[in-house]
Amino acid sequence: MAPLTLGYDDKHPFSQVPITDRASVQELLRTVLDPLEPFFSPQKARVKCPGATAVRFDQTASEVEGFFRPIWGLACLLAGGGQYRGTDWWIQGIKAGTDPESPEYWGYPRDNDQRMVEMCPFGFALAVAPEIWAGLSAKERVNVENWLGNSINEKKSDYMPNTNWLWFRVFANLGLKQNGAKYSEERLESDIKHLDTFYRGDGWSNDGPEGIHQMDYYSSSFAIHFLQLLYAKLAATSDPSRAKEFKHRAQIAALDLVHYHDTLGRAIPFGRSLVYRFAMVSFWGALAYADVDLPAPLTWGMVKGIVLRNLRWWQTQGDIWTSSGTLSLGFSYPSMYITENYNSPGSPYWSCLAFICLAVPEQHPFWTSEEEPISSLIPKVKAIRHPGHITSYLGGHCMLLSSGQACGYPMKATHAKYGGFAYSSAFGYSVPSGLFSLEQYALASQLGLSDDGGEYWKTRRLSEYAAIEERDGQPILVSVWKPFADVKIKTLLVPPVESTPNWHLRVHRIQAGREVMTADGAFAIRNANSENGRYLDLYDESKCEGTSPKIIGNYDTNTPAGWDTGLNGAFAVAADRGAVGIKALEPQGQRQANLVNADPNTNLMDSRTTIPTLQHKIPQGQEVWYISAVYAKPAGTGVPKESYLDGWKSPPTIPNWLVLEMAADGGM
């Protein structure tokens, strides 16, 4: 097969598969695997995906990652009775990679080695695709036992991250066990027992021990729930009580996790590792694979719809591919700004977890049911206690408000990936491109504070307190945080209501021990007009497109056209994206509104964005209350562009409970 080369306006084969049934999803996977062929090493043990970017681990490990991550998809295809012309590439590669005498030997894993991560898909593939083990000689099987089993089982607990990584050793042992090979039952049991200490209740597991609050897609589709369900299937006979418990947790969690998916197939981007793209729906296919009984009101038609609509949405994101047809580093387009230090060019193929649905038998109701939309019986607004989220289906998109989560270490852009106030399936989140000015910080759905006149900014990362509380029978999120030692902020996040579905409120009580500038950003939106792709101009009602006020610059106060009062606010409308905006509701009327022209490639969804923002300066020693009303109305099927600003002139009123709280504090 000739290498795939995508030229100007060429479409990737992935986007041209009509997704209707199991066979079509099998074909979809083949379009993901085929472009890898030219990038296999001579003995097939390594895959060097295009891109010379370095990561925190060595180049060999990077190429081992490129080899094993696609095997998630291949193993699922084979487990479901499907076929792939390149299956032998992986069998040959396993032979060479595990052979210490081969020039393509993968190398013995060191402590905290990335090779241990890739042992997870290796173990799963051995467990579900018998042709792999059958294709090995006796000597080659011993090599596999040594590399896959001995090497990882000798690692002490403090030489592996105390996170979802422990599942990877579980699957290394499970794959060997399923084939009657040498493995460690002691390690398998002790690891699962320890992983169980991450469980927090109501179906939710944390990605780490006490002291870390991180419940992102690793808790569901990328690792923990996904692997629990795979384990429940594979160990149903050998460990029936634990398998039953894992399935029970998935039943409970499913009623929460459905709130992270919208009617168009998009999942809410939140947290790290979003280069894994369509793996965000793998939990739902794993439910079917593990034969979980769905809790009402979920149906297999709904679950099937969540998976297939997501795959179809990714088919519309044509920029996710390199010119060679391989997956790029990024989300809706290539961008290194969103990546983590462990994202090699082969990392995005963890996306292949989504193809677990191919291991589901053709007769299963996942495949035989008609696709259904998400049920109207699902609550429109829901407080989800363990991750610290309030989710909303109101306003034409799936949105979550968040407080209290933080990565266990200060990873790149962690404040944007976990500390933002709101995350949207339609508008994504934004990460900084640098550390100088609001353009580079790209503070979408964040409150930034600067004590040096606007050069460096600090936002919420760690919270001293965070909880879901209740006001007048409605859930709100409350957090207390300090961007500086002498600046204390109490933030209240109030979800949308039926009467104003496109608005949510962010309330900040700021006690400033030093003079600070503040910038409160709305969602970011595409900064390109529909006529010629140039930046948005001043709003044109006849075109239903543009901004108010005009995009001038972040601190250009000498150009009045670029600023408006906080009461009037700032908004931006892009014809193919919808409208976003922000207004200041506090009676003092001190803040001003403008548009921040964010650096390119900072937003996950669109490479050019602008952010409606409220700005202000607080003198040293003062206390202020901000009430920011944030507007969002996405484009969508049946949503005329003339309606994008329908709710803009009618923001929510300040709730009575908030009036009383502010009055008691002297803020009204």
TrEMBL record:
Protein name, UniProt field: DUF2264 domain-containing protein
Domain DUF2264: 21-373, 379-658
